[in-house]
Amino acid sequence: MPETSTTDFNRAMRDAKKQAGGVANEVSDAASQVADAATNAARKTASSFEKALRDTIENQPYTAVAIALGLGWLFGRTHRPF
Question: How many Å apart are CA 39 and CA 33, to the nearest integer?
């Protein structure tokens, strides 16, 4: 009788390991797909930001310089006490 329960236990453990391995592979594949989608979205956003920035600098250079000076002053003030 103890041999049967040991055999059943070993079979159940093998089945559980197979199922866990399958789930781990599915999770790994899903995580890879999410990472790829996030990377593509980041590239697309960076590309559109670059285009908008380039257009602003080329079409409105004085405005771009004024914004850059304002941001530089603001960042400089954040490191000094009032």
Answer: 10
pTM: 0.46
Measuring CA to CA, how many Å separate 29 from each of 19, 22, 24, 38? 15, 11, 9, 14
User: What is the crossing angle of helices 2-59 and 61-78, to 10°?
Assistant: 120
Annotated domain spans of the chain:
2-78
Angle in degrees, CA 49, 53, 57, rounded to 5: 175
**Tokens standing for residue 23:** 């789930």
Separation of alpha carbons 51 and 6, rounded Å: 67
Spatial separation of the C-alpha atoms in residues 54 and 47, rounded to whole Å? 11
User: Taking a C-beta distance cutoff of 8 angstroms, is the pair 57, 64 a contact?
Assistant: yes
pLDDT digits (tens, 9 = 90+) for 32-61: 888 888 888 888 888 888 898 899 899 999
